[in-house]
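wait is this the right file?? whatever heres the structure
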């Protein structure tokens, strides 16, 4: 007999398991510094795998962006498993207050704590995705984390028929969170969630039917004060690369800053991706949806 946890209230089961993993895992710790957590308690949301928005992303981003059904159809045994209903599990890992405070004080480069979070915290984020995939597969369901798939592909040059400016990929974690009711976009391309814009995020696609999380917004920029109301713009001043303006986020300027201005931090601090995050801290949307 199938476990009732997966038939009666699977959303509660998944949310509780993810929360427990984040709270208890020794990998959610800054072992290289003082052992403090990378992330606070996560937010978890769910989307219908056939939500029309996923198909619209093929026009907004480009035809290479795959839908959940396209991702899951490539899984082993998919032809023999029920694909009648698909779901996307999205989650947000809020960066701890201590790390955000340290980065809030910076103006030209990330703080040491933020840089460690960006490199080693993302390693933990990968573990969260794998944990969810394993959890679902052990329960007898198909599951895939697109970011961990061999089919995941990033594009660093403009592609014919694509509207998105490079870099972009064939699966956007932030867009998945948008569909799953977890937040809307900022002028800096970040995702403003109920726990703010300073976070990492991830998603998993499955054939387990899940109740979609209601979206308390209608537009893609509802939580951004600048794009929704014409006010704010603090992240524009916070960007040390000058890569943010009222017109949006210039990814090339951002990448150049990462590759040149703070490239030395990789060697100085022994970190693969120091990151920056100045536009995610010291801003009204840092810790929640701004009033």
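ok assuming it is, sequence goes like this
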């Amino acid at each position: 007999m199938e476990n009732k946890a997966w038939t009666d209230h699977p959303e509660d089961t998944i949310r509780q398991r993810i929360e427990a993993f984040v709270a208890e895992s020794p990998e959610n710790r800054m072992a290289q510094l003082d052992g403090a957590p990378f992330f606070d308690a996560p937010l978890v949301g769910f989307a219908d795998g056939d939500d029309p928005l996923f198909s619209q992303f093929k026009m907004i981003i480009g035809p290479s962006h795959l839908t959940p059904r396209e991702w899951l159809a490539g899984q082993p045994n998919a032809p023999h498993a029920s694909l009648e209903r698909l779901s996307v599990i999205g989650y947000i890992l809020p960066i701890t207050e201590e790390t955000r405070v340290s980065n809030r004080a910076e103006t030209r480069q990330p703080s040491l704590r933020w840089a460690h979070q960006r490199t080693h915290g993302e390693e933990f984020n990968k573990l969260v995705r794998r944990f969810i995939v394993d959890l679902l597969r052990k329960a007898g369901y198909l599951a895939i984390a697109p970011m961990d798939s061999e089919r995941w592909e990033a594009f660093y040059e403009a592609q014919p028929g694509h509207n998105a400016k490079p870099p972009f990929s064939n699966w956007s974690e932030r867009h998945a969170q948008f569909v799953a009711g977890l937040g809307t976009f900022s002028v800096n391309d970040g995702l403003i969630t109920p726990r703010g814009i300073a976070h990492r995020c991830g998603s998993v696609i499955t054939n387990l039917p899940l109740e979609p999380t209601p979206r308390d917004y209608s537009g893609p920029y509802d939580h951004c004060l600048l794009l929704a109301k014409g006010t704010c713009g603090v992240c524009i001043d916070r960007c040390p690369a000058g890569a943010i303006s009222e017109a949006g986020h210039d990814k090339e300027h951002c990448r150049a800053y990462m590759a040149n201005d703070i490239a030395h931090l990789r060697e100085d601090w022994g970190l693969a991706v120091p990151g920056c995050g100045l536009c995610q801290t010291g801003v009204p949307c840092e810790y929640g949806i701004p009033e």
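The CA atoms of residues 49 and 68 lie 6 Å apart. so i think its the right one actually
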